[in-house]
Every structure is written in structure tokens, then in C-alpha cells.
Amino acid sequence: MIRTFAFISVLLIFSSIAARSEDLPREFTVTPEVIKEAPAYVTQVVVPDAMCAAVSDAASLLIVGQRSVNERHLAVFHLDADGRPTGEPTGITLPKPEAIAGSLSFPVGLLFHPKLPILYVWQDVALPAGKTPPDLTKFAEFDHLLTYAIKDGALELVQTGARGPGFHCGLNTGTIGLDYGMKNLFVPNAQGATYDEAGIAFYALDEEGIPSDTPEGANEKGARAPEMTINKSKNPAKKAIRVVALPKNLRTNHYFPSGAGWFAGSEAMLMGGYSGCMMTDLHDGGLRQTWFGLPDRIGPCTLAGHPKLPEVYLCLQDNLQLAAIAHANGYLTLLPQLANVTGAHFTGIPVVLTGQSRLAVGDTKALHLLGLQADGRFDGKDERLTLPCFSVRGLAYSEKHGRLFVAVDKGD
Amino acid sequence: MMRERSLGGGFLSALRRGLCAGCSARSAQDDRVFRRRARDLRAKTSNVSAWTICIAFLLIVAALPLHARTITLKPEALDAFAALSEANTINGWAAYNYDYTRYTADTPGGGPATSYLLRYSLDQIPKGMRITHAEWTIAHNISSANVNVWRVLAEWGPGVCYQYRATYPQKLEWSVPGAKGKSTDRATNPTATGQFVNGQLLTVNVTQDVEMWYNGAAPNRGWLLTFDGFALLHSATHGGHRTKWQLTITYEPE
Q1: How many angstroms separate the CA atoms of A298 and A333, rounded?
Q2: What is the tens place of the pLDDT at every residue in A157-188?
Q3: Model confidence pLDDT, tens digit, residues B180-189
Q4: Which domains does chain A have, with CATH numbers?
Q5: Is the ipTM of this complex over 0.90?
Q6: Which chain A residues in 314-333 lie under 8 Å from chain B, judged by CB atoms?
Q7: pTM strictly above 0.90
Q8: Where are the domains of chain B?
Q9: Considering A114, A183, A308, B54, which has the largest number of Cβ atoms within 10 A of its Cβ?
Q10: Is A26 helix (H, G, I), strand (E, B) or coil?
């Protein structure tokens, strides 16, 4: 009798929980529905050890960055009229100084300029294990920021920069972002006042999209200034190698990484970072920042913004928690919606699938596709697709074709 | 429930009577058979009784004329929050400023120039109830400031900040920045007033507001917290102290 009573009580409790889940509280837990077949809008490309990816509808290019020991850092796919990759990718090796020829360098972030035939690449280099802080002198000439021009579907390196002690090394998270007006390029992992403290920096872009002069405003005190070296440019006046004036550099008062995904609002810039996200306020010509420590658990967080709805998504790395946060012109607002996905170990920067109203997030050997409501908040559902890939980080979405590209380690 | 039990018991007695009627002098074998059958029957009737009890219990629970009940709404029930900061008038999450360049959202620092908007969802209260009591615990950390709790009158939403009550999809200003407009942005008089004492949580009576919101006499636009001095609060959204924010509501059937 007692057992029967207990059984019915348990049934009652579960039914009440199920009833409540229909209302979807602000913080909820979802168990993914496992799907065995990739949806039609998911296109897999084989690029082992992918770190990042970007797609340009205008140039019909898909580029995947990989952490490769064979010095092929970028895999360049040409897309056909339907947005499908054609043929084998072209490999590109990223430059690094002779002094660190034996060190493993790798791309961490890729960004196509939305209106100009320009690709920005952020690269980093593996540090030797041991000493903390390590000896960074041999990385003094390592350029993190690479600017490529796209000519007839081919990439031509036109500039390198963001070198020296102004930036941290040895990080596998951090990318670049354009502001709302596409006048400034934000870069990650600038060195703060101490070895542990992250900063960010941003560079003004010239009319060709090439990082150049210093944005208005002086550097914040205490932060070391990154440098920009012009190696080569389409502009003949910039052919001489020179160090441009100091870019704006901001401390974050937080650990690395910084710039782990950017979103440009019309009045403020958002980025992912350590244990939260930062908002850089560009209002009235001033520049202030607000730090939002969102997850209670600490660790790197990546961020992605919805291109059409006032919502950003914050993803605590190697964890199961995602946040959907409303914003107004780049200012975070109201309260976050928190999704705890059972069994997840999220990795990389999420990608919004506007055509499918979903958020794609990488995992260990899997891809999550979380449903979004009409206002951009989570709808409480998640699909999990197992992939032949140790860590699913190479995600890119084509708005034109409504296609999600996923880089995997090997074919089926 | 009791009737079922007596039925079961009567049936057993009848069986016993029937078995005994045909044989005044039972053999030992007959006695064992009788005991086994009686045991089986008891077990069956016992199961029937258990199910009956459970079903009856459920029916009783479902049909119970609900008595007064108290629920505690924790920060999970908060559905909106904003900091209204004179120092950063367009950022609704500029909750604490370290200096003029840096703010945080997870350490709320209130003061004469920084107030807070908080709104709870009352969806957890069933329909057809009457609010009999509501009290709100405001989780401060370090402060001796006086705090006022105001019922907010003006609608506010995405992008709410010191200057605007919403900025998305369009900018709408408070009648007085900081929601200071009495009888327009906020009620004419505070709902409750109290003073923070270090080491103690401040609890204020907000029955009237909750009752109005629940009844639909006024739209639920939350409360505005204002302070006459510096007040370091526990975050309602971050960290282990957030559960100290509690809205306790007692209600009963109308």
C-alpha cells in the first residue's frame, strides 16, 4: 500500500513539473532530443581540428580556421549558386615570425567585412608549458591581426598588426568585431595592467576597411598599448612599414579571454569574456564599460547577437548553461533567460540561424540546435546531433541560403 | 474509504464462515488451505484498498475547498529589473560604478542617485483567490540608508534606464527622469518605508500593492526602490545571496 501511494505521489509530482514546463520559467532545464539525421539546412565540411569559421554570401566563400600541425591554417571553400561548397578547399598558411617558426600558431577568429571584400583573421600561438607568466619576448613580433583582401575569390594578405606585448598569447578564444557603423574594428585579448588582466582594443578603419588610425580618445591609464604594423596595403601611401599611433585600449578588470564574440548595437558594443560579458558604451563620444557577471559559475563565456531581434546569447564554456538576454540598441536590459541543457559541455561561439529560428552551439562530438521563440528567447526545446568531431567549434551561417556550415574532423 | 474496508472485512468473515460451515471438525489440511486462501484474499483486498485510498485521497485533494496558503516568490519569479543611475543615464544595467568609466551589473549599489526597478510575476497565485498578506524582503548587504518602496505607475520595458522608461522599439521618456514623477511615473506616496540595519534583512508590508495587481485594479509594473544614502544590496540575479530576496504572499479562496 505504501509503495502504491508513493508511486502515485511521484506521478503527481512529475505531472505538476510537466505542467509548469509549458509555462517556461525564466530559468529552466531541458533534456536534448537526440536526432540521428542532420537537418537539411546543416552542411558538413571536413576540416579537422576546426577552431572557427566564417561565410561570405557576397564573395561566395566559406572559410574554416583550423589548429593544424601541418601549417594549413585556413581552408577556403568556394560556394556554388545554391551555397554549397564546390570541390576541395584551398589551404592558406598564416604568417608568423621566424623566431617562433617551431611554435604552433592557429586562427581563433574570422570575420568578413559585410560591405567590403575584406577578411579579418585573429590568430594566436601556443605557449610553452610551465612558467607563468611565460617568457613572451620571442613572441614580440607575432602579429595577431591579419587583414586579407578578397580578389576574384582569392585571399591576399594586405596587412598584419596587433603585435607584441600589447596582446596576450596562448588563448584559443577571442575574435574580432565591427562596430555598428563599421568604422572601428574591435580586437580581443589585449593586455591589461597585469599579466592576468584582459583588455580590449579597437582600431579605426579606413575607407578600404584597413585598420589604420587611432580612434578618438586617449588610452586608458594603466593599459599597455597594442601596436599596429602596416606591412602592405592596396594604398601606395601605406607600403612602408610603420607603427601607427596607439589604438584605444580598455582594461576589463577581468581574466582572459576578452572579445569572445561581439555584437554591435547602435549605441553600445557587447562582447563575451571571462565570467560574463562586457558592454562598451560609445554614447555621446565617450567610452565607458559595464561588466555583467551573468553565470554564477566562473569561466570563459562566448557571445553572439541575433541579427534581427533584440537578443544576445551568452554561452558559458565547457558548461551546460546558456543565457538569452534582451538588449536595446546594445544595452543589455531586463533579466536574462537561463537554459540549462542536460549533459552539455558547450564550446565555441554560438551561431544564430535566423531562417530556422534556432541557436546552434557546439559541444564535444555534438551540435545543439536550440529553438527560439518569435522574440528571440529560448522556446525550451533542444535537438542534439552527434558529429564526427571532437570539439564542434567551426560554425558559420549563410543568411542568403539559410544554411549552417559545420566543420567536422572526418566524413561519415 | 471506511466502507471499502468494512466490505473487505465482511467478505473475509463470510469466507471464514462458509469454509467452516461444511465441516465442524476441520482437518489440519483443511485448516492450512483455509489459512492460505484467507491470506491471498487479504492481500488482494489490501491492494484494492490501497488503490481506493489513493484515489480517494486525490479526489479529496482536488475537491478540497482550499485553505489559506502562503507562497514565497524567489528571484526566479522576478521578470524584470533595471538600475536607474544618474551617473549613466542610458544604461539600465549600470548598477554600480567603480569609477566614471566602469560599471557592474552584478553588484547593485543604491543611493540617492541610483534606484532600482523590480517586478515579480504573480502567475504562481491561482485564480479566484484573495490576497490577505504580502511582505517583501529587500536583501541589502551593507547600509544604514532609509529605503522607500514605490508602486510604479508608468509602463516600462526593454531599454529602461534613468532617462527612458523604454528605448525599444521606440524611446519613451519618464515624465521625470529616474521615474521620479509622482502620480505619473510612480505612486504619489510610497507603499512602504524602512531603514536598513547592518546584519538584518529589511522586510516591508506590500499587501496593498500585491492585492491591486492580483485583482487587476492596477497593472503590475513592479516597485521602485529609492534610497536616501548609499546602500550596497545583494544582487537579486547573481550569487548565493540572491535567495534572500523574497516576496511572501498569503492568499485564501474568495
Answers
A1: 22
A2: 999 988 877 888 999 999 999 999 999 999 99
A3: 999 999 999 9
A4: 40-300+403-408 (2.120.10)
A5: no
A6: 326-329, 331-333
A7: no
A8: 2-63, 69-253
A9: B54
A10: coil
